[in-house]
Amino acid sequence: MTQKARYTAAVESAIDKLHEEGRYRTFIDIERHRGQFPHAMWRRPDGTETEITVWCGNDYLGMGQHPVVLAAMHEALEATGAGSGGTRNISGTTVYHKRLEAELADLHRKEAALIFTSAYIANDATLSTLPKLLPGLIIYSDELNHASMIEGIRRNGGAKRVFRHNDVEHLRELLAADDPAAPKLIAFESIYSMDGDFGPIEAICDLADEFDALTYIDEVHAVGMYGPRGAGVAERDGLMGRIDIINGTLAKAYGVMGGYIASSAKMCDAIRSYAPGFIFTTSLPPAVAAGAAASVRHLKTDQDLRDKQQRHARILKARLKAMGLPIIDHGSHIVPVIVGDPVHCKQLSDMLLEDFGVYVQPINFPTVPRGTERLRFTPSPVHSPEMLDGLVRAMDNLWSQCALNRQELTA
């Protein structure tokens, strides 16, 4: 066997392993039509098309279809063309980028904000750069932090401590065990997207004050969704001023693309100046920045949209609970239904799509621990009562058809 053949065999073996474990991910071809979300067209492998309802999207509020966002993008596209033309340091900084950063700084009541091409890059670039700015930095990371946070912390070459999920006492033990003079940063999330549970923000801020640590919060699944202006859970709880660095996304509730941090002017300037993930990446297209700015601006005042989304999530959870389906309910907008087996999870997903036109992707390891495989529903303000009825009937039918257990999981 040649060396190239060995490479091919190794790649095939890795893919075969996913098939054997029932974890192989299949992408379906869907086409969204403007103004029709959450409806979309599913183009089957044989070329035929079927209308489906998307129940697993992260466009939580339907802002990706909002006229205010589309108008801003059209205007910027006609004014500037398609691409940004380079990195921010070369020619990729435009008035649209500056306006978006000003909107985000205002949203979070911070001195400045810095936009990236994604929240993943924002987390990775920032957390991997901080030890360069703060020599000897120790980062304390929740064990269920997003992969982008884990990767940034892993790559930064500094010291790290991992505390048990939402376990403030364990975090205290770790902080107390380290040199009091060492610079410290606590990295955690406001909403953990797979279970939909909330981080103990106030308790962590109290520990940060006690041990002179910086706070870094990922509000990716909360920005646009919580707080009187949509700045996130920290805003809702009156704690935003106690957070040193806030990470957010423009690709979920805001319906566009990109990520950012909001912090002090000096912190944003330092990350801008030292983070390779920022320095060497082409900036967002101006039309995308314009759409994101319009979305952020709009959601600062559209509380009705947030209220409707939360109401739909509560209704769906209540109805699934009433049928005895094993859902996790921590009071957030995310509705996870535990299946507990990757093969069954994929089968349920396939049957929902084929038989009922319901699109929800299976969530398997390594996104969630083995044995907790699930379907994760994200109801939006634009899901109608009729769509919700159809989903509930489909789940009831398939749960019985597949002879799955009915029980209630407590938060």
Layout of helices and strands:
Layout: H1 3-20, E1 29-32, E2 39-43, E3 49-54, H2 67-80, H3 95-107, E4 112-116, H4 119-133, E5 138-142, H5 147-155, E6 159-163, H6 168-177, E7 184-189, E8 191-192, E9 197-198, H7 201-210, E10 213-218, H8 233-236, E11 245-249, E12 259-263, H9 265-274, H10 276-279, H11 286-299, H12 303-322, E13 335-338, H13 342-356, E14 358-359, E15 362-363, E16 374-377, H14 385-401
Parallel strand pairs: 3-14, 5-6, 5-7, 7-10, 10-11
Antiparallel strand pairs: 1-2, 2-3, 4-12, 8-9, 11-12, 13-16, 15-16
Fill in the keyword field for this structure:
single chain; 411 residues; alpha/beta; seven-stranded mixed β-sheet; 14 helices
Walk me through this protein's architecture.
The structure is a single chain. Helices cover 42% and strands 17% of the residues. With 411 residues, the chain is of the alpha/beta class. Strands 4-12-11-10-7-5-6 form a seven-stranded mixed sheet, sandwiched between helices. α5 (147-155) links the parallel β5 and β6 (159-163).
- The arrangement of helices and strands along the chain is HEEEHHEHEHEHEEEHEHEEHHHHEHEEEH
Gross geometry: globular
Low-pLDDT stretches are none
Radius of gyration: 22 Å
The gist of it:
With 411 residues, this protein is an alpha/beta fold. It is built from 14 helices and 16 strands.
